[in-house]
Structures are given as C-alpha cells and as structure tokens.
Amino acid sequence: MTVAIIYHSVSGHTRQVAEQLADACDGMLIEVVCRTPYNVVTRYVVGGKRALSGEKDEIDPAMIDVADFERIVIGTPVWARHPTPAINAAVDALRGCEGKEAAIYATCGAVAGDTIALLQSALEQKGVRVVGGVVFAQHELQSEEKQKELVSLLGDTCAQ
Question: How distant is the alpha carbon of residue 8 from its chain centre?
C-alpha cells in the first residue's frame, strides 16, 4: 500500500469517502478517534467553537507515522467551516511526512468554508506538498465524478 488515508468521521460520511478511496487505491485506512467523543449537542456547541479556534482534541492514534507511504490523504468533516479538532490533532501527530505529497478532502452539508485552505497550510508547515483538495457536499457523497477527482490527485498510486 502506498497511500495512507487518514480521516475523522462522526456521521459516517467522511468514512464512506475514505472507504471508497481505499478500494480505488488499495490504500490503508487510519481512522482518527477523539478520546473524549462528542455527542449531537456538544459536536455543534463545543466542537464547532474548538474548530473555529483551530484547537486540537486528544486523539487515537496519538502518533501517525506515514514514512512508509508514498502519498497521504487527509479527510475531515466540516465543523463551522473548519477542519475538526481531531483532524487538527492528526496533522500535528504526523511523523515521517516531510517531502510527501498529500490530497485533502472534506465532507459537509453544503459549504466547506476555509477547511481545505486551513488544512493545506497546516500540512505545508509540516513539509508536506498538497496537490489539491476536493469538497463532497452531502448530495455528492455517491458522486463517481467527485471520487474520480479525488483519485486523480493521487496520480499513478491509484488505478483509475
């Protein structure tokens, strides 16, 4: 496997895209889980506020070593038009990522806001070159066109 697909999913939408991508690319799924999970209310009230502030949650796995992978994919739900605190922590937890290429995707109800740009900036600060990002609005989760767009960002590491 040459692609590490790192994602956080609460509703299952981001997981769905990750699994489709793993099937297309023979990628390895790495699910990021909050040590203190959010419920329906705290996800919006607490999680949204933490996302807006760029805060990080305590996560498992606490360290994500991607040295043995050619490329990285980061997938996040959109909370308050930002990446989730769990994905902020996942980027911070990356090891062996310097000089790697990454693609980003976000799942959202309708608008991703600054999610892709914020993740790109955080990854670039870690020495990762971001090759692009794709936003999946809720009505596009089953879109073959969107999935192909994401796969195409990974170049020859995925069978098209």
Answer: 7
Nearest C-alpha neighbor of 26 from the set 70, 62, 77, 67 = 70
CATH number of the domain within which 36 lies: 3.40.50.360
Averaged pLDDT for residues 39-65: 93
Helices (H) and strands (E) in the chain, counts: 6, 10
User: Looking at residue 159, what is its pLDDT?
Assistant: 57
Euclidean distance between CA atoms 9 and 22, whole angstroms: 15
Quote the domain boundaries for residue 98. 3-157
In 10 A of CB 159, how many CB atoms? 8
Q: Rounded to whole angstroms, how far apart are CA atoms 89 and 57?
A: 6
71 residue type, one letter? R
Q: How confident is the model at residue 158 (pLDDT cuts 50, 70, 90)?
A: confident
Buried b (16+ CB within 10 A) or exposed e, 19-57: bbbbebbebebbbbebeeebeeeebeeebbebbeeeebb
> How many domains does one find in the chain?
1
Structure letter (DSSP) for residue 47: I
**pLDDT value, residue 44:** 84
